[in-house]
Amino acid sequence: MSIVTRIHGEHYDLTGFAHPGGTIPLKLIDGRDGTALFELYHPLADRTQLRSRLERFRIDPPEREIEAQDSYDFSDFDRDPFVIELRARVRAYFEALARRRGCGLIEATKAPWAKHVENVVAFCAFAASCVFLARGHWLATLTTPLCYWIYLVGMWHDGGHFALCANKKAEFFLYRLFVSPLMSSGRWYATHSHRHHAYPNRPRLDGSTEAYYRDWSIKTPLKRLLRSAWSGLVRRPQRERPAPGADGPPLGLRSLREHWHGFRLTRALNLAAAVIFVKFVILDNLLLRPTPAGLAFLLLPLTILIALYAFFTMVNHLHQANFTRHRNLFRHQVITSYNFCCGSYWMRLVSGGLNCQIEHHLFPSVNSWHLPALAPIVKRACQAHGVPYREAGSFREAVTDTLRALRGRPGNRDPAGA
User: Fold this and answer.
1) CB-based contacts of 250, cutoff 8 Å, min separation 6
2) Prediction pTM value
3) The pLDDT of residue 231 is above 50
């Protein structure tokens, strides 16, 4: 199958391109305008070298020309002082880190050994907690979803942004390992890694926050958060309305299987783990205990997991000040995101780095381990160029502000571009 995309107004046939990040990123921009994703995932690359490699794959516009994105203006993007300083400062940080580690620049942006240890410990804690949950310990109804969430956000989220490790085959295997069979890799790549990160808080483009623009039938802010989380974890999404440059071929399971031999193995392991969990944790609790207690052991962990998903994802974008837009890609990423407790190790661990959402949206392929160190660098650059850098001192303050924004019905606003 051919892979044709449009980047900075030019069309490219990337079918035979041996992409260092693997073939999944190429699939994400197949049949679409890939300019925004291209810039977000190559912020530290040498621009001249990048364009020279792309030039070999340039083609004449196809008969059915790919529609250009109209969300951003890239005409002077590389000459913007804010973009130049931000790239230079972050590149300098990772060059120094690469020298200390004795590795390449891109490898320095991925997870260090300590982050991998965190993921292993989180999974072992989750497995141990499942044993206690199966034995009927009430405390395990809290520790099981918490440990699983820490593992999930540390492995699935980083892996879904190609930020886990430099070896892409190993990364995809780890990314899929022991995640719920209900969670679709293809859907995550397409709706989150591409559309949410390229076009945050943009109606008809960002599927992750789309519901807050169009659906106001839910009575309370808390219910809105939980309903969105339930949809993200379990339900199949409704087909989103197409928008310029974003519509294209779906990224389904067939696309993943064509390129990754580990897909079948991870799926088998995940199904086996799910069967064991259902039998010994869920069914045994339902059958061997009185109905109220059995249902509590089933519903309480699920409710806690949904609440964790809701609060640690929605508080990063749903604030009154975030419902705006800018024609510059990097500036738009900053003003539509929100940080909280960036200096806290425990908040970084539990949120998977989502507490440094501004840095994550600017550099999605950088592992979450590095985001707290990037926060002061990004903040200084924002202050120097008058870009609003929004953050809360506590998680409670962030949640309170999100609930206040939801009560204010931000979805009715359609702000003009800056």
Assistant:
1) 186, 190
2) 0.85
3) no
